[in-house]
Amino acid sequence: MNIMKKWGYILGGLFISIVPSYAAMTLPNINIGLTNANTPQDFTNGLQILIWLTILTLAPSILIMTTCFVRLVVVLALTRQALGAGTLPPNQVITSLALILTFFIMAPTFNEINEKALQPYMQNQITQQAALDRGIKPIRDFMFKQTHEKELALFVRMAKIEKPKTKDDVPTFVLLPSFIMSELKTAFTIGFVVYLPFLVIDIVVSSVLVSMGMMFLPPSMVALPFKLIMFVMVDGWYLIVRSLVESFVR
Fold first, then answer.
1. Contact, 204 vs 221, CB < 8 A?
2. Which of 27, 137, 173, 187 has the smallest number of CB atoms closer than 10 Å to its CB?
């Protein structure tokens, strides 16, 4: 009881000492409203704020469209499906691993954007338009390295534009879908290669069960332990992650 009283006195003293400090604090008051634009500059500033808010809203989609996230998450999801382990690893783990690997692979590109575009703009050394032009160039260079000529030619033809002579002549709205299509093609190609060993195990297990007359025993349930032990013995996650990361190094 004496110990409880001592702790009560201590907590009471802390509460009494903290309350006045919080009472002295002032919270900011944020007001958002619409006012008349009296000058063209006021209208331009408001339009810029609206554009930036739209960009922030679409930031996750931009991250998916312009980085290696698509290839990573598709291959990891196909690997999980090939294992036949149901929802293990969960979707949150697959997405988180793909996102972490995306930041790892894109780190040189992000650093280049920070050094050549963001930092000079924050220090008022270049204009906003110059910062955008410098910032998009490393992203375009990355996408060009991963884009196949076939997909790029397809969207150039569908856009009905003049055949580009250099990379700088390719519009970004043409490069984006070409890049995504190329990433999907590459991801499913890698997924097919990953799927083959597990498919062989499924076929062997099914054949053995049929030859033994166990036709009512689900082959997937019997094959799962063999697929898991094979995946662990060859260190499957290490091989897949290493192959994915090396596929972007050219």
1. no
2. 27
CB neighbours of 117 closer than 8 A, spacing ≥ 6? 126, 131, 132, 134, 135
Q: How far apart are CA 166 and CA 164, in angstroms?
A: 6
Going by pLDDT thresholds of 50, 70 and 90, the confidence category of residue 33 is low
Nearest-angstrom CA–CA distance, 213 and 211:
5
Please give the structure tokens belonging to residue 83.
Answer: 């294992």
d(CA 75, CA 184): 10
In angstroms, rounded to a whole number, what is the distance separating the alpha carbons of residues 140 and 167?
A: 9
pLDDT tens profile 105-158: 888 888 888 888 888 878 888 787 788 888 888 888 888 888 888 888 888 888
Encode pLDDT of 151-161 as tens digits. Answer: 888 888 888 88
